[in-house]
């Protein structure tokens, strides 16, 4: 819960001049989960879905937690270290998400009318997982490398892939353009071999790691959290090869993501 997140962590991701409040809570208004008739008779055994209340700019939005946690009142009030870490990671992501979208414009009127309810309408955390962000940045780099003119069909396809509208991976796009044009030659060699197929390892990692299997990694986990070490250690990867992968991801993030506090992709 936000009250348990260190202030310096919150300040590191909140670049607005306003307070962003994230509060996890149990939704007691929907049917709880029970495993049998015996638990049905004992309210202390009822597991309730964890939700999140996001308050900013005098408006509050409520969404189901991306952790998909169901807890009893006792479990929620006396959280394990694992659950507390999950909720902290989600809280920091949501603060950063609100902050980035709010600060993407300097228009005072637009900022005053900023509405978190609209921001979180149809929100899906999975679209902002690290693997999908890296994919879109890789495609963005491809657009720059090809020097495509805006309005062309190829440009539109790649732009839609960047926005997340198409489920086309960078390797598929690269293979297609290699067959269509020589202008893409040399692009694949800019990055390590592992980057092009690292999503396979990422999915294996999620299946092998309880924390990140429950809530997939985001950019903050990669930048400031323990994802890098957990990813390498869980999969027992060669340190030198993994370092090349991280250098590629660092390059994409530094070039297309962090520069100028760019907002999250518009989806």
What is the number of independent domains? Answer: 2
Number of strands: 4
Q: Kindly estimate the percentage of residues that lie in beta strands according to DSSP.
A: 5-15%
* Mean pLDDT score: 90
- Which geometry do the CA atoms define? globular
Keywords:
267 residues, alpha+beta, 4-stranded antiparallel β-sheet, 14 helices
Q: Mind explaining what this structure looks like?
A:
The protein is of the alpha+beta class and 267 residues long. The chain has two domains: 2-122, no CATH class; 127-256, no CATH class. The protein contains 14 helices and four strands. It has helices spanning 7-13, 37-40, 73-77, 81-102, 108-112, 116-119, 130-146, 153-163, 170-180, 193-208, 210-214, 219-223, 227-235, 239-256, and strands at 21-26, 48-56, 59-64, 70-71. Strand 2 (48-56) and strand 3 form a beta hairpin. Helix 7 (130-146) crosses helix 14 (239-256). The longest helix is centred in the middle third of the chain and has 22 residues, at 81-102. It is globular.
Layout of helices and strands, plus pairs?
Elements: H1 7-13, E1 21-26, H2 37-40, E2 48-56, E3 59-64, E4 70-71, H3 73-77, H4 81-102, H5 108-112, H6 116-119, H7 130-146, H8 153-163, H9 170-180, H10 193-208, H11 210-214, H12 219-223, H13 227-235, H14 239-256
Antiparallel strand pairs: 1-2, 2-3, 2-4
Helix pairs in contact: 7-8, 7-14, 10-14
């Amino acid at each position: 819960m936000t009250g348990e997140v260190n202030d310096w962590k919150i300040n590191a991701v909140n670049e607005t001049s306003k307070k962003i409040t994230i509060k996890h809570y149990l939704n007691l208004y929907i049917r709880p989960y029970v495993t049998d008739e015996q638990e049905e008779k004992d309210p202390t055994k009822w597991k309730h879905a964890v939700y999140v209340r996001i308050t900013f700019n005098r408006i509050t939005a409520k969404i189901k937690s991306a952790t998909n946690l169901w807890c009893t009142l006792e479990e929620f009030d006396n959280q394990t270290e694992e659950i507390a870490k999950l909720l902290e990671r989600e809280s920091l992501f949501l603060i950063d998400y609100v902050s980035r979208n709010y600060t993407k414009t300097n228009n005072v009127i637009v900022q005053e009318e900023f509405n978190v309810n609209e921001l979180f309408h149809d929100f899906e955390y999975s679209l902002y997982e690290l693997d999908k962000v890296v994919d879109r940045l890789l495609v963005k780099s491809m657009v720059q490398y090809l020097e495509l003119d805006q309005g062309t069909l190829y440009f539109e396809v790649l732009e839609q892939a960047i926005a997340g509208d198409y489920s086309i991976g960078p390797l598929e796009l690269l293979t297609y353009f290699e067959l269509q044009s020589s202008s893409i030659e040399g692009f694949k060699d800019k990055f390590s071999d592992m980057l092009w197929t690292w999503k396979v390892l990422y999915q294996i990692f999620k299946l092998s790691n309880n924390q990140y299997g429950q809530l997939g990694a985001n950019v903050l986990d990669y930048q400031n959290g323990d994802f890098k070490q957990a990813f390498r250690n869980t999969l027992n990867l060669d340190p030198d090869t993994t370092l090349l992968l991280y250098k590629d991801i660092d390059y994409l993030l530094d070039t297309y993501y962090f520069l100028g506090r760019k907002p999250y992709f518009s989806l």
